[in-house]
Amino acid sequence: MAGSLTGPARIRNFIERERRAGRYWVQYDDVFSFAYNGSANIIRYVSYPFLYIKFSHQGTALLISYITGLSSGLNLYQLPGWNRDNVRQLPASMRHIIGDIHHSW
Asked: Which phi and psi angles does 3 have, rounded to 5°?
């Protein structure tokens, strides 16, 4: 039952589901944040632009952003909901990923 999973288990499930879809997210700032830039070859640094997701300790997404530079990007999701105008501005490939994430929740 998904409701009984711990926060870390929910995060692992998300990362594994994404990996099965061919998307390899890497740990970013800490154990609760991840980045994806379309490459399966990310080693340490993520190049711009990239998707960024931050989870709570309970495994719930707190923030999803599309980062385009050091101080620029689009806030796509922040509790309690989606910023649809910003999602529409994404390149089609990233918009597809966001659609998959939104559908899986």
From this structure: -65, -20
